[in-house]
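Q: What residues go here?
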């Protein structure tokens, strides 16, 4: 089963965004294969990390070029029913961008 693409996240300021979108897991399984695209060439990095219950997990990637896929297909973590999965974005650039992301969920 696949969680698919989550809604776009509009980023308007320098700094840190966490938990803007999230999902509560309905069953136990594994999260893997983070894919990220950004809507602008930023001149800097958008570091995107998947979180579980607010804690950063090992799945992370850095995006910095418009419409170029940035991925982490190596790392994964397990979830149980009731865990909340979201993303954390850290950036230090002043360029507004939309970040689109997806992960795979297998059970």
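A:
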């Amino acid at each position: 089963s696949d969680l698919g693409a989550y809604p776009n996240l509009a980023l308007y300021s320098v700094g840190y965004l966490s938990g803007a979108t999230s999902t509560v897991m309905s069953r136990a399984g594994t999260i893997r294969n983070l894919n990220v695209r950004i809507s602008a060439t930023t001149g800097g990095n958008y570091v995107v990390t998947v979180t579980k219950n607010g804690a950063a997990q090992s799945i992370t990637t850095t995006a910095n070029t418009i419409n170029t896929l940035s991925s982490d297909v190596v790392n994964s973590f397990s979830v149980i029913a009731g865990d909340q999965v979201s993303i954390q974005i850290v950036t230090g650039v002043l360029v507004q961008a939309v970040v689109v992301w997806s992960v795979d969920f297998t059970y």
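A: Context that may help when evaluating the design: The CA atoms of residues 6 and 102 lie 6 Å apart. The two ends are 7 Å apart (CA to CA).
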